[in-house]
Design brief:
- The protein folds into three domains: about 200 residues, no CATH class; about 80 residues, Phosphorylase Kinase, domain 1, CATH 3.30.200.20; about 250 residues, Orthogonal Bundle (Transferase(Phosphotransferase), domain 1), CATH 1.10.510.
- Helices cover about 50% and strands about 10% of the residues.
- It has 17 helices and twelve strands.
- It is rod-shaped.
- It holds the Pfam family Pkinase.
Length: about 575
């Protein structure tokens, strides 16, 4: 059995679990061994008696008698063990009996044959088998004990019984050095068997530990890691509480190094609290939040698809009808967020503050989901950001947000305008070196209509996006539902519904098939499962100091099935 730890030193969880299993299962394992030996001994009785005329009946009856003893003894012991009786010394006694079998046969060979027969009889196989059988009991000390006993028996039998009966000249293979070498081999066999038993036990401990780490509160089993950021990591997980019910979810977990950071834990819990208040088809749903060990986790809706950032990297600029559909869906989501009230009916004045392509999730059937409310702000919460620090991603901030001035939901709409502009043109409006332009009083000269870069953009879509990108907050489109009304007014092949959604589903399926090395599905109904791809480390948006505040990069995306790398 696994060794106990010294006082004050707790064993790893896997070791504790395995030790508990061994304690509970030791009688069952011993019963399996005794049943096996009883069966083999019974078969040996028949085979030995059938050879009685050839090996001599005295020898055959002696061996058959030993086999009968083993069959009866281990058969009785099997019945007792199955009734629940067990003593810790039992397997040591049994190993001693099993290793003595070779000594008994050695004596029989000398008594009914010659010393040369005794020394050449293939007892090595039998003795080695008893050593391995001892190791199968799951205790490396038993294997060492069996190897030591067999080695000692070899030396003593040779010295006391064989050596006095050997006639000169003694063959080389019967000389003391060779017999000592044989005994050494037996001991080495025991040591190797003990090493194998220890190795298997250690691997079992690691497996138990890995399973335990993946099993959160008995409800969530973690699979592959989807992404990791600076302070948290995201896993695909299976929720299976009881009764065979299973649901695939995404689990976001704080990295152990930040589990004691009170500010970050508070932000994490606030994200979960805000997420629990938001129930909308265009928002990633928060399903559960809890603590496991020293860290916190959050279970969320799992989106079988990819993010807008990854789609733009693989496909490039999107068709106008797809961008119109994205704008309509996200406008509705943001309108819901901005109008949300608490359970007491108090307006939350909620602002997402981090609308950008990595936080927009696209499913293979054309669903659009807004995720990651990690830096969202509600008026009912105490502001956790430090003085003069502005949270969000560089390149997707509204001017008033970048300057550290008061802002509201229209800052999210400005970020949405930048995102839709990028989806149409394939280029970010604000590159890293142009970030300081966001704090100007007037719009920079490169903030132009999407149609300047892409002439096929319809005028209605052009106007809707530029309405979101008005530099002065008072001139900007005030509400997300107004954006949706503008975009849904588009008709024909450019209509967001159903043409935009259908085209988005087709593009997403092609992108997923390309990444997985498969041919794209011809319809969304033909695809039922998203195969995982190797993890790619996500790099955060750059952090920069701007007049009026510092822009902080956000953590990892909550429910995306593919984590992104930062756009170069």
């Amino acid at each position: 059995m696994p060794h106990s730890d010294p006082p004050g030193h707790a064993a790893p969880l896997g070791t504790q679990l395995l030790a508990e299993h061994f304690r509970a299962d030791v009688a069952a394992r011993e019963a399996a061994v005794t049943r096996f030996i009883s069966l083999i001994a019974s078969l040996f009785i028949i085979s030995t008696l059938s050879l009685g005329a050839r090996i001599g009946w005295p020898r055959a009856l002696s061996v058959a008698g030993l086999c009968a003893f083993f069959a009866l003894y281990y058969g009785w012991q099997t019945r007792m063990l199955r009734r629940g009786w067990f003593h810790p010394a039992l397997h040591w006694i049994n190993v001693g009996l099993e290793t003595s079998t070779g000594a008994y046969l050695f004596v029989c060979d000398i008594a009914f044959g010659t010393v040369e027969q005794a020394l050449t009889n293939p007892m090595a196989v039998l003795w080695s088998a008893t050593i391995v059988l001892a190791a199968l009991r799951g205790n490396r000390h038993l294997a060492l004990f069996a190897g030591g006993v067999v080695a000692a028996e070899t030396v003593l039998l040779y010295a006391l019984l064989a050596w006095p009966r050997l006639a000169e000249p003694i063959p080389l293979m019967f000389t003391p050095p060779l017999i000592a070498l044989r005994a050494t081999y037996y001991f080495i066999t025991g040591w190797l068997a003990a090493m194998v038993a220890s190795f298997l036990t250690h691997r079992a401990e690691e497996a138990l530990q890995a399973i335990r780490e993946k099993d959160l509160l008995g409800k969530y089993f973690l699979h592959e890691r989807l992404g990791v950021g600076g302070m948290a990591e995201v896993f695909r997980a299976t929720y299976s509480p009881e009764g065979g019910f299973e649901k695939v979810v995404a689990v976001k977990r704080i990295l152990p190094a930040y589990a004691e950071d009170e500010d970050f834990v508070t932000l994490f819990r606030r994200e979960a609290e805000l997420g629990s208040l938001l129930c909308h088809p265009n928002i990633v749903q928060v399903l559960d939040v809890g603590r496991f060990g020293d860290t916190y986790f959050m279970a969320m809706e799992y989106i079988e698809g990819l993010s807008l950032r990854e789609l733009l990297k693989s496909h490039g600029p999107l068709p106008p009808e797809v961008v119109a559909y994205l704008g309509a869906e996200l406008g509705e989501a943001l309108d819901y967020v901005h109008r949300r009230t608490s359970s007491e009916g108090i307006p939350l004045n909620l602002v997402h503050r981090d609308v950008n392509p990595p936080n927009i999730l696209l499913s293979r059937i054309g669903e659009v989901k807004l995720g990651d409310f990690g830096v969202a702000r509600a008026a009912i919460h105490v502001r956790l950001t430090e003085a003069d620090r502005v949270r969000g991603k560089l390149g997707y901030l509204a001017p008033e947000q970048a300057r550290g001035q008061p802002f509201d939901g229209r800052a999210d709409l400005f970020a949405l305008g930048l995102t839709l502009h990028e989806a149409l043109t394939g280029r970010r409006v604000f590159q890293g070196e142009d970030a300081s332009d966001m704090v100007r009083g007037e719009p920079p000269p490169f903030l132009v209509r999407p149609s300047v870069h892409r002439p096929d953009v319809p005028a209605e879509l052009d106007a809707a996006i530029m309405g979101l990108l008005q530099w002065r907050m008072m001139e900007r489109t005030p509400r997300g539902h107004q954006l949706r009304e503008q975009l849904c007014a588009m008709t024909g092949a450019l209509a967001p519904h159903p043409h935009g959604q259908r085209e988005l589903a087709r593009i997403v399926q092609e992108a997923l098939a390309h990444k997985g090395g498969r041919a794209p599905a011809r319809s969304s109904e033909q695809v039922t499962r998203l195969e995982p791809t190797p993890l790619r480390t996500r790099e955060e948006e750059p952090t920069a100091v701007l007049p009026g505040g510092s822009v902080l990069a956000n953590g990892p995306m909550a429910a995306v099935a593919r984590e992104e790398t930062r756009e170069d």
